[in-house]
Design brief:
Elements lengths: L1 H14 L9 E7 L4 H10 L11 E6 L10 H10 L20 H7 L3 E9 L3 H4 L11 H9 L5 E5 L2 H4 L7 H4 L3 E4 L2 H6 L4 E5 L16 H14 L4 E7 L2 H6 L3 H24 L3 E6 L3 E2 L3 E5 L6 E4 L5 E2 L3 E7 L7 E4 L1 H10 L4
Parallel strand pairs: 1-7, 1-8, 2-14, 3-4, 3-7, 4-6, 5-6
Antiparallel strand pairs: 2-13, 8-13, 9-12, 10-11
Helix pairs in contact: 2-12, 3-13, 10-12
Bound molecules: magnesium ion (MG) and zinc ion (ZN).
């Protein structure tokens, strides 16, 4: 009798050990193209301050793709989301053509709630790395289909047209029966659905300088409130997508404005983690964009003169800032694939 009770408790404990009270929340924040120069420029433009100064643990990530030192966002997104190096342009598939499971999916299997927020489309390479497996990042309609079949609980981003104006004439928003797809932040906040999607734009969202509402921080705050109410641990990826686009455009004002919005959003995550100590925040980049250098500037005004080396990406290492539960794992110099393995370790999955 006592023995069977023992087995019940032990085996029950084994089978129901998913999403224990001590499983940490993870907020992974990716500034696309956000190298140290982008952070420096954004910090100067923000009165020489960034919330990243509050992060106690700093590391460096080696961003190269499988064959090329210079990575794209698909290969580096896959490395961080799925833990393996792959070819540029490929999402969620390794060099042996094997489909990879992402940290978001591993978290789901362990009872986590999940969310994705981006200032690009939701089918763009970085967010797609967390739910899609495609040989080309340009297969947006296929990525949208895979998104519609994913278990992501909350998503906010552009790209509605990939779901409803499709060559196969399918309406994926209708097909996503369990997801309440809403039109704006107010409706997102009001919805009591278990799964909510918010399309911010039909296509690519514009830059802040071209009129996008600077409300990434509010999107994060609203999503954190939803997740907090679920009383389960969560995994949330937030991307400042357009820091990269400013780098491609060799436009320092584009970079700094997008950085400042991202920085404010990191501040919201930091406040959450300060009030919820069982939370791990990781802030990093997938690569540097533009080969940016700040070559002149004034300390009174923080006006800067910038120099760019390329309209593409570079192979320089990028910083990793971490805060909270298990943040010590992220000190040191390591491959970007280790970000996946360290997150797995943080949630206690081998
Ligand atoms: Mg991106
Ligand atoms: Zn880029």
């Amino acid at each position: 009798m006592k023995l069977s009770l023992f087995y019940f408790v032990v085996l029950g404990g084994f089978f129901f050990s998913k999403a224990q009270d001590n499983s940490p929340n993870i907020i992974l924040m990716i500034g696309d193209g956000m190298g140290l120069s982008q952070i420096s420029a954004g910090m100067y433009a923000n009165n020489n301050q960034t919330v990243l100064e509050d992060f106690p643990v700093i590391g460096l990530s080696k961003t190269q793709a499988l064959r090329n030192l210079v990575t794209d966002s698909a290969a580096s997104g896959t490395a961080m989301a799925c833990g393996e190096k792959t070819y540029n342009g490929v999402i969620g598939i390794n060099q042996y053509n094997k489909e990879l499971k992402s940290i978001l999916e591993i978290c789901e299997e362990n009872g986590y709630k999940t969310g994705l927020i981006a200032t690009s489309t939701i089918v763009h390479a970085t967010p797609a790395s967390f739910y899609a497996n495609v040989v080309s990042r340009k297969k947006y309609e296929e990525i949208a289909l895979q998104m519609s079949m994913s278990e992501v609980d909350y998503f906010i981003g552009g790209g509605k047209n990939y779901f409803i104006n499709r060559t196969d004439n399918r309406n994926l928003i209708k097909e996503m029966e369990t997801v309440d797809v809403v039109k704006n932040l107010r409706a997102f906040k009001k919805s009591s659905a278990d799964k909510i999607g918010l399309f911010t734009y039909d296509n690519d969202p514009p830059s802040l300088n071209e009129g996008r509402d600077p409300i990434l921080a509010e999107y994060l705050a609203a999503t954190l409130e939803k997740l907090d109410n679920r009383k389960k641990p969560f995994f949330l990826m937030v991307e400042g997508s357009q820091i990269d686009w400013g780098g491609h455009a060799n436009d320092i004002d584009y970079i700094t404005s997008e950085f400042i919005e991202f920085n404010n959003t990191v501040g919201v995550a930091l406040n959450y983690a300060k009030n919820n100590p069982n939370t791990l925040i990781i802030v990093t980049a997938d690569h540097e964009t533009g080969g940016l250098a700040i070559i002149k500037g004034k300390t009174q005004t923080f006006e800067m003169e910038a120099s760019f080396n390329t309209s593409g990406h570079t192979a320089t290492m990028v910083p990793v800032f971490s805060y909270g539960k298990s943040s010590g794992l992220f000190a040191g110099i390591y491959q970007n694939t280790q970000i996946f393995h360290k997150m797995k370790k943080a949630i206690g999955v081998n």
